[in-house]
Design goal:
Helices cover 37% and strands 14% of the residues. It is of the alpha/beta class and 352 residues long. It has two domains: 7-37 and 260-351, Aspartate Aminotransferase, domain 1, CATH 3.90.1150; 40-258, 3-Layer(aba) Sandwich (Aspartate Aminotransferase, domain 2). The strands form three sheets. Strands 2-8-7-6-5-3-4 form a seven-stranded mixed beta sheet, with helices on both faces. Strands 9-10-12 form a three-stranded antiparallel beta sheet. The longest helix has 24 residues, at 259-282. Bound molecules: pyridoxal-5'-phosphate. Pyridoxal-5'-phosphate is lined by residues 85-87, 111, 151, 155, 181, 183, 207, 209, 215, 220.
Length: 352
Protein backbone atom coordinates (compact mmCIF):
# COMPACT_ATOMS: atom_id res chain seq x y z
CA UNK A 1 0.00 0.00 0.00
CA UNK A 2 1.34 3.43 -0.87
CA UNK A 3 0.02 6.93 -0.38
CA UNK A 4 0.50 7.43 -4.12
CA UNK A 5 -2.08 4.77 -5.00
CA UNK A 6 -5.58 5.69 -6.04
CA UNK A 7 -8.49 4.40 -3.97
CA UNK A 8 -9.41 2.09 -6.86
CA UNK A 9 -5.94 0.50 -6.83
CA UNK A 10 -5.99 0.14 -3.04
CA UNK A 11 -9.20 -1.86 -3.33
CA UNK A 12 -8.12 -4.22 -6.13
CA UNK A 13 -7.70 -7.99 -5.76
CA UNK A 14 -5.83 -8.87 -8.99
CA UNK A 15 -6.17 -12.17 -10.84
CA UNK A 16 -3.40 -14.69 -10.18
CA UNK A 17 -2.44 -16.47 -13.44
CA UNK A 18 -1.32 -20.09 -13.40
CA UNK A 19 2.39 -20.38 -12.77
CA UNK A 20 4.79 -20.15 -15.76
CA UNK A 21 7.92 -21.71 -14.22
CA UNK A 22 11.26 -20.90 -15.78
CA UNK A 23 12.50 -24.49 -15.33
CA UNK A 24 13.21 -26.78 -18.26
CA UNK A 25 11.97 -30.38 -18.54
CA UNK A 26 8.75 -29.77 -16.68
CA UNK A 27 5.55 -31.51 -17.67
CA UNK A 28 3.33 -28.48 -17.58
CA UNK A 29 -0.33 -29.43 -17.19
CA UNK A 30 -1.47 -26.40 -15.18
CA UNK A 31 -2.67 -23.64 -17.54
CA UNK A 32 -4.63 -25.41 -20.30
CA UNK A 33 -2.17 -24.56 -23.03
CA UNK A 34 -2.27 -26.74 -26.14
CA UNK A 35 0.58 -29.32 -26.17
CA UNK A 36 0.80 -29.10 -29.96
CA UNK A 37 2.39 -26.05 -31.52
CA UNK A 38 0.54 -23.41 -33.51
CA UNK A 39 -0.16 -23.85 -37.21
CA UNK A 40 3.11 -23.75 -39.20
CA UNK A 41 1.29 -21.44 -41.60
CA UNK A 42 0.58 -19.03 -38.75
CA UNK A 43 4.27 -19.04 -37.77
CA UNK A 44 5.23 -18.41 -41.39
CA UNK A 45 2.81 -15.49 -41.62
CA UNK A 46 4.20 -13.99 -38.40
CA UNK A 47 7.76 -14.26 -39.74
CA UNK A 48 6.71 -12.69 -43.03
CA UNK A 49 5.03 -9.81 -41.17
CA UNK A 50 8.23 -9.08 -39.19
CA UNK A 51 9.60 -6.59 -41.69
CA UNK A 52 10.07 -2.89 -42.34
CA UNK A 53 6.29 -2.31 -42.16
CA UNK A 54 6.53 -2.62 -38.35
CA UNK A 55 7.45 1.09 -38.39
CA UNK A 56 3.78 1.73 -39.22
CA UNK A 57 0.85 1.34 -36.84
CA UNK A 58 -1.31 -1.73 -37.47
CA UNK A 59 -4.86 -1.50 -38.80
CA UNK A 60 -6.76 -0.17 -35.74
CA UNK A 61 -9.84 -2.17 -36.79
CA UNK A 62 -7.98 -5.38 -37.69
CA UNK A 63 -10.37 -5.70 -40.64
CA UNK A 64 -8.56 -8.69 -42.16
CA UNK A 65 -9.03 -10.65 -38.93
CA UNK A 66 -12.67 -9.58 -38.54
CA UNK A 67 -13.34 -10.78 -42.08
CA UNK A 68 -11.63 -14.12 -41.38
CA UNK A 69 -13.61 -14.67 -38.15
CA UNK A 70 -16.85 -13.64 -39.86
CA UNK A 71 -16.16 -16.04 -42.74
CA UNK A 72 -15.41 -18.89 -40.34
CA UNK A 73 -18.70 -18.50 -38.48
CA UNK A 74 -21.05 -17.30 -41.22
CA UNK A 75 -21.32 -13.76 -39.81
CA UNK A 76 -20.69 -10.23 -41.06
CA UNK A 77 -17.59 -8.27 -39.92
CA UNK A 78 -19.98 -5.89 -38.09
CA UNK A 79 -20.83 -8.82 -35.81
CA UNK A 80 -17.18 -9.33 -34.78
CA UNK A 81 -15.03 -7.59 -32.15
CA UNK A 82 -11.35 -8.53 -31.76
CA UNK A 83 -9.00 -7.88 -28.85
CA UNK A 84 -5.68 -8.58 -27.18
CA UNK A 85 -6.62 -12.01 -25.85
CA UNK A 86 -10.13 -12.84 -24.72
CA UNK A 87 -9.23 -11.49 -21.28
CA UNK A 88 -9.10 -8.00 -22.77
CA UNK A 89 -12.30 -8.65 -24.72
CA UNK A 90 -13.99 -9.76 -21.47
CA UNK A 91 -12.74 -6.65 -19.65
CA UNK A 92 -14.41 -4.45 -22.28
CA UNK A 93 -17.56 -6.60 -22.03
CA UNK A 94 -17.80 -6.03 -18.27
CA UNK A 95 -17.43 -2.26 -18.63
CA UNK A 96 -19.47 -1.86 -21.82
CA UNK A 97 -22.30 -4.36 -21.42
CA UNK A 98 -22.46 -5.75 -17.86
CA UNK A 99 -22.09 -2.66 -15.65
CA UNK A 100 -25.64 -1.78 -14.64
CA UNK A 101 -27.74 -1.05 -11.56
CA UNK A 102 -28.49 -4.74 -10.97
CA UNK A 103 -25.78 -7.32 -10.19
CA UNK A 104 -24.04 -9.47 -12.79
CA UNK A 105 -24.62 -13.20 -12.27
CA UNK A 106 -22.02 -15.94 -12.73
CA UNK A 107 -21.50 -19.41 -11.21
CA UNK A 108 -19.81 -19.79 -7.80
CA UNK A 109 -17.29 -22.11 -9.46
CA UNK A 110 -16.13 -20.45 -12.65
CA UNK A 111 -13.39 -18.42 -14.31
CA UNK A 112 -11.81 -16.50 -11.46
CA UNK A 113 -11.17 -13.42 -13.61
CA UNK A 114 -14.87 -12.44 -13.59
CA UNK A 115 -14.93 -11.12 -10.00
CA UNK A 116 -11.63 -9.34 -10.70
CA UNK A 117 -13.18 -7.30 -13.55
CA UNK A 118 -16.11 -6.51 -11.24
CA UNK A 119 -13.62 -5.17 -8.70
CA UNK A 120 -11.77 -3.11 -11.30
CA UNK A 121 -14.90 -1.53 -12.76
CA UNK A 122 -16.87 -1.48 -9.50
CA UNK A 123 -19.63 -3.71 -10.78
CA UNK A 124 -21.96 -5.41 -8.34
CA UNK A 125 -22.13 -9.21 -8.75
CA UNK A 126 -23.78 -12.29 -7.26
CA UNK A 127 -22.57 -15.85 -7.66
CA UNK A 128 -25.04 -18.62 -8.40
CA UNK A 129 -24.21 -22.02 -6.87
CA UNK A 130 -23.59 -24.88 -9.28
CA UNK A 131 -25.56 -28.06 -8.69
CA UNK A 132 -24.05 -30.78 -6.49
CA UNK A 133 -22.75 -32.48 -9.64
CA UNK A 134 -21.23 -29.11 -10.74
CA UNK A 135 -23.69 -28.46 -13.55
CA UNK A 136 -25.15 -25.03 -14.28
CA UNK A 137 -28.93 -24.98 -13.69
CA UNK A 138 -30.42 -22.59 -16.24
CA UNK A 139 -33.51 -21.88 -14.13
CA UNK A 140 -31.29 -20.37 -11.39
CA UNK A 141 -30.57 -17.47 -13.76
CA UNK A 142 -34.22 -16.43 -14.07
CA UNK A 143 -33.92 -13.64 -11.51
CA UNK A 144 -33.28 -9.89 -11.69
CA UNK A 145 -29.77 -9.17 -12.97
CA UNK A 146 -27.65 -6.69 -14.92
CA UNK A 147 -26.10 -9.42 -17.08
CA UNK A 148 -24.99 -13.05 -17.04
CA UNK A 149 -21.61 -14.55 -17.88
CA UNK A 150 -20.20 -18.09 -17.73
CA UNK A 151 -17.78 -20.28 -19.65
CA UNK A 152 -19.25 -23.15 -21.68
CA UNK A 153 -17.73 -25.69 -21.19
CA UNK A 154 -17.34 -24.27 -17.69
CA UNK A 155 -13.88 -23.80 -16.18
CA UNK A 156 -12.48 -25.38 -14.08
CA UNK A 157 -15.12 -28.14 -14.14
CA UNK A 158 -15.13 -28.91 -17.90
CA UNK A 159 -18.89 -29.46 -17.85
CA UNK A 160 -21.01 -28.43 -20.83
CA UNK A 161 -24.45 -26.82 -20.82
CA UNK A 162 -26.70 -27.71 -23.79
CA UNK A 163 -27.77 -25.13 -26.37
CA UNK A 164 -31.41 -25.77 -25.38
CA UNK A 165 -30.64 -24.64 -21.86
CA UNK A 166 -28.70 -21.62 -23.11
CA UNK A 167 -31.75 -20.75 -25.24
CA UNK A 168 -33.89 -20.92 -22.09
CA UNK A 169 -31.54 -18.52 -20.26
CA UNK A 170 -31.60 -16.10 -23.22
CA UNK A 171 -35.41 -16.13 -23.35
CA UNK A 172 -35.74 -15.70 -19.57
CA UNK A 173 -33.45 -12.62 -19.69
CA UNK A 174 -34.47 -10.54 -22.73
CA UNK A 175 -33.25 -7.30 -21.10
CA UNK A 176 -29.79 -8.54 -20.06
CA UNK A 177 -26.72 -9.42 -22.07
CA UNK A 178 -25.84 -13.11 -21.69
CA UNK A 179 -22.13 -13.73 -22.33
CA UNK A 180 -21.02 -17.27 -23.19
CA UNK A 181 -17.25 -17.60 -22.82
CA UNK A 182 -16.40 -20.42 -25.25
CA UNK A 183 -12.65 -20.62 -24.56
CA UNK A 184 -12.84 -24.45 -24.66
CA UNK A 185 -15.73 -25.10 -27.03
CA UNK A 186 -13.56 -26.58 -29.82
CA UNK A 187 -12.69 -29.59 -27.64
CA UNK A 188 -16.14 -31.11 -27.76
CA UNK A 189 -18.67 -28.43 -26.96
CA UNK A 190 -21.42 -27.03 -29.13
CA UNK A 191 -21.06 -23.34 -29.94
CA UNK A 192 -23.89 -20.90 -29.23
CA UNK A 193 -22.86 -18.73 -32.21
CA UNK A 194 -25.81 -19.96 -34.37
CA UNK A 195 -28.18 -18.52 -31.72
CA UNK A 196 -26.92 -14.96 -32.35
CA UNK A 197 -29.28 -14.41 -35.28
CA UNK A 198 -32.36 -14.84 -33.05
CA UNK A 199 -31.01 -13.34 -29.82
CA UNK A 200 -29.92 -9.68 -29.69
CA UNK A 201 -28.85 -10.24 -26.05
CA UNK A 202 -26.28 -12.99 -26.80
CA UNK A 203 -22.53 -12.34 -26.94
CA UNK A 204 -20.12 -15.26 -27.52
CA UNK A 205 -16.41 -14.88 -26.65
CA UNK A 206 -13.59 -17.00 -28.15
CA UNK A 207 -9.82 -17.18 -27.77
CA UNK A 208 -6.91 -18.31 -29.95
CA UNK A 209 -5.03 -19.39 -26.80
CA UNK A 210 -6.41 -22.91 -26.40
CA UNK A 211 -7.63 -24.72 -29.53
CA UNK A 212 -5.36 -22.70 -31.85
CA UNK A 213 -2.36 -23.00 -29.60
CA UNK A 214 -1.51 -19.28 -29.74
CA UNK A 215 -1.61 -18.28 -26.07
CA UNK A 216 1.59 -16.30 -26.61
CA UNK A 217 0.14 -14.19 -29.44
CA UNK A 218 -2.79 -12.77 -27.39
CA UNK A 219 -5.80 -12.84 -29.69
CA UNK A 220 -9.46 -13.20 -28.75
CA UNK A 221 -12.80 -12.13 -30.18
CA UNK A 222 -16.47 -11.61 -29.38
CA UNK A 223 -19.40 -12.11 -31.75
CA UNK A 224 -22.94 -10.81 -31.42
CA UNK A 225 -25.40 -8.47 -33.08
CA UNK A 226 -23.89 -5.13 -34.22
CA UNK A 227 -25.34 -3.04 -31.35
CA UNK A 228 -23.42 -5.17 -28.81
CA UNK A 229 -20.25 -5.02 -30.91
CA UNK A 230 -20.56 -1.23 -31.16
CA UNK A 231 -20.48 -0.95 -27.35
CA UNK A 232 -17.20 -2.89 -27.29
CA UNK A 233 -15.74 -0.72 -30.07
CA UNK A 234 -16.63 2.39 -28.05
CA UNK A 235 -14.77 1.05 -25.00
CA UNK A 236 -11.81 -0.13 -27.10
CA UNK A 237 -11.50 3.23 -28.85
CA UNK A 238 -11.50 4.94 -25.47
CA UNK A 239 -8.71 2.69 -24.17
CA UNK A 240 -6.23 1.50 -26.84
CA UNK A 241 -6.66 2.07 -30.57
CA UNK A 242 -4.25 -0.73 -31.53
CA UNK A 243 -4.80 -3.74 -29.27
CA UNK A 244 -3.69 -6.17 -32.00
CA UNK A 245 -0.27 -5.65 -33.50
CA UNK A 246 0.73 -6.51 -37.07
CA UNK A 247 2.20 -9.89 -36.11
CA UNK A 248 -0.90 -10.90 -34.18
CA UNK A 249 -3.27 -9.98 -36.99
CA UNK A 250 -1.17 -11.86 -39.60
CA UNK A 251 -0.75 -14.95 -37.38
CA UNK A 252 -4.39 -15.13 -36.35
CA UNK A 253 -5.67 -14.84 -39.94
CA UNK A 254 -3.31 -17.61 -41.09
CA UNK A 255 -4.33 -19.79 -38.12
CA UNK A 256 -7.97 -19.55 -39.17
CA UNK A 257 -7.04 -20.45 -42.75
CA UNK A 258 -5.18 -23.59 -41.64
CA UNK A 259 -8.29 -25.67 -41.06
CA UNK A 260 -6.39 -28.96 -41.23
CA UNK A 261 -3.92 -28.19 -38.42
CA UNK A 262 -6.82 -27.04 -36.24
CA UNK A 263 -8.80 -30.23 -36.88
CA UNK A 264 -5.93 -32.69 -36.36
CA UNK A 265 -4.67 -31.09 -33.17
CA UNK A 266 -8.05 -30.66 -31.53
CA UNK A 267 -8.98 -34.27 -32.38
CA UNK A 268 -5.69 -35.45 -30.87
CA UNK A 269 -6.44 -33.56 -27.65
CA UNK A 270 -9.95 -35.07 -27.48
CA UNK A 271 -8.62 -38.62 -28.04
CA UNK A 272 -5.94 -38.19 -25.35
CA UNK A 273 -8.53 -36.79 -22.95
CA UNK A 274 -10.63 -39.93 -23.28
CA UNK A 275 -7.61 -42.14 -22.47
CA UNK A 276 -6.66 -39.89 -19.57
CA UNK A 277 -10.18 -40.06 -18.11
CA UNK A 278 -10.16 -43.88 -18.34
CA UNK A 279 -6.70 -44.11 -16.73
CA UNK A 280 -7.60 -41.72 -13.90
CA UNK A 281 -10.84 -43.60 -13.25
CA UNK A 282 -8.88 -46.88 -13.08
CA UNK A 283 -6.75 -45.27 -10.33
CA UNK A 284 -9.92 -44.52 -8.36
CA UNK A 285 -10.36 -40.86 -9.33
CA UNK A 286 -13.84 -39.45 -9.81
CA UNK A 287 -13.63 -37.42 -13.01
CA UNK A 288 -16.22 -34.79 -13.98
CA UNK A 289 -17.30 -35.37 -17.62
CA UNK A 290 -15.19 -32.92 -19.64
CA UNK A 291 -15.80 -31.25 -22.99
CA UNK A 292 -12.60 -29.18 -22.58
CA UNK A 293 -8.83 -29.68 -22.88
CA UNK A 294 -8.55 -30.37 -19.16
CA UNK A 295 -10.15 -32.71 -16.65
CA UNK A 296 -11.31 -31.98 -13.10
CA UNK A 297 -10.83 -34.97 -10.82
CA UNK A 298 -10.85 -35.91 -7.14
CA UNK A 299 -9.65 -38.99 -5.35
CA UNK A 300 -11.85 -40.09 -2.46
CA UNK A 301 -8.83 -41.31 -0.43
CA UNK A 302 -6.05 -38.88 -1.24
CA UNK A 303 -5.78 -35.18 -0.41
CA UNK A 304 -5.61 -33.12 -3.61
CA UNK A 305 -3.10 -30.55 -2.38
CA UNK A 306 -0.71 -33.30 -1.21
CA UNK A 307 -1.03 -35.10 -4.54
CA UNK A 308 -0.32 -31.86 -6.43
CA UNK A 309 2.78 -31.34 -4.31
CA UNK A 310 3.97 -34.92 -4.85
CA UNK A 311 3.50 -34.48 -8.60
CA UNK A 312 5.51 -31.28 -8.51
CA UNK A 313 8.39 -33.16 -6.81
CA UNK A 314 8.32 -35.38 -9.91
CA UNK A 315 8.41 -32.29 -12.20
CA UNK A 316 4.75 -32.48 -13.18
CA UNK A 317 2.60 -29.45 -12.44
CA UNK A 318 -1.20 -29.45 -12.32
CA UNK A 319 -3.57 -26.82 -10.90
CA UNK A 320 -5.05 -27.00 -7.43
CA UNK A 321 -7.47 -24.32 -6.18
CA UNK A 322 -7.68 -23.62 -2.44
CA UNK A 323 -11.32 -22.63 -2.79
CA UNK A 324 -14.55 -23.81 -1.15
CA UNK A 325 -16.17 -26.92 -2.72
CA UNK A 326 -13.24 -27.65 -5.04
CA UNK A 327 -10.20 -27.94 -2.75
CA UNK A 328 -10.18 -31.74 -3.16
CA UNK A 329 -9.94 -31.52 -6.96
CA UNK A 330 -7.02 -31.38 -9.35
CA UNK A 331 -7.41 -29.61 -12.67
CA UNK A 332 -5.22 -31.40 -15.17
CA UNK A 333 -4.56 -30.06 -18.67
CA UNK A 334 -4.65 -32.67 -21.43
CA UNK A 335 -1.06 -32.90 -22.69
CA UNK A 336 0.44 -35.19 -25.30
CA UNK A 337 -0.04 -38.95 -24.89
CA UNK A 338 3.49 -39.21 -23.50
CA UNK A 339 2.90 -36.42 -20.96
CA UNK A 340 -0.34 -38.01 -19.78
CA UNK A 341 1.33 -41.41 -19.50
CA UNK A 342 4.05 -39.85 -17.32
CA UNK A 343 1.34 -38.26 -15.17
CA UNK A 344 -0.45 -41.59 -14.71
CA UNK A 345 2.82 -43.35 -13.87
CA UNK A 346 3.61 -40.69 -11.25
CA UNK A 347 0.11 -40.85 -9.74
CA UNK A 348 0.29 -44.66 -9.60
CA UNK A 349 3.46 -44.28 -7.53
CA UNK A 350 2.07 -41.51 -5.34
CA UNK A 351 -1.20 -43.28 -4.53
CA UNK A 352 0.77 -46.43 -3.72
C1 LIG B 1 -8.02 -19.19 -20.98
C2 LIG B 1 -9.35 -18.54 -20.73
C3 LIG B 1 -9.61 -17.23 -21.16
C4 LIG B 1 -8.49 -16.30 -21.56
O1 LIG B 1 -8.01 -16.46 -22.77
P1 LIG B 1 -6.94 -15.43 -23.38
O2 LIG B 1 -7.47 -15.26 -24.75
O3 LIG B 1 -5.64 -16.14 -23.32
O4 LIG B 1 -6.96 -14.15 -22.61
C5 LIG B 1 -10.88 -16.73 -21.02
N1 LIG B 1 -11.86 -17.43 -20.45
C6 LIG B 1 -11.64 -18.67 -19.98
C7 LIG B 1 -12.74 -19.42 -19.33
C8 LIG B 1 -10.38 -19.25 -20.09
O5 LIG B 1 -10.13 -20.45 -19.57
Amino acid sequence: MSRFWSDVVKGLTPYVPGEQPKLANLIKLNTNENPYGPSPRALEAIRAAADESLKLYPDPNADALKRAVAGLHGLTPQQVFVGNGSDEVLAHVFLGLLKHERPVLFPDISYSFYPVYCGLYQIDYETVALDDDFSIRGSDYARPNGGIVFPNPNAPTGRMLSLDEIGDILRANPDSVVVIDEAYVDFGGESAIPLIADHPNLLVVHTFSKSRSLAGLRVGFAVGQPELIEALERVKNSFNSYPLDRLAIAGAVAAIEDREHFETTRRAVIATRETLVADLSALGFEVIPSAANFVFARHPLHDAEKSALALRQRSIIVRHFKAPRIDQFLRITVGTDAQCEALIAALTEILG
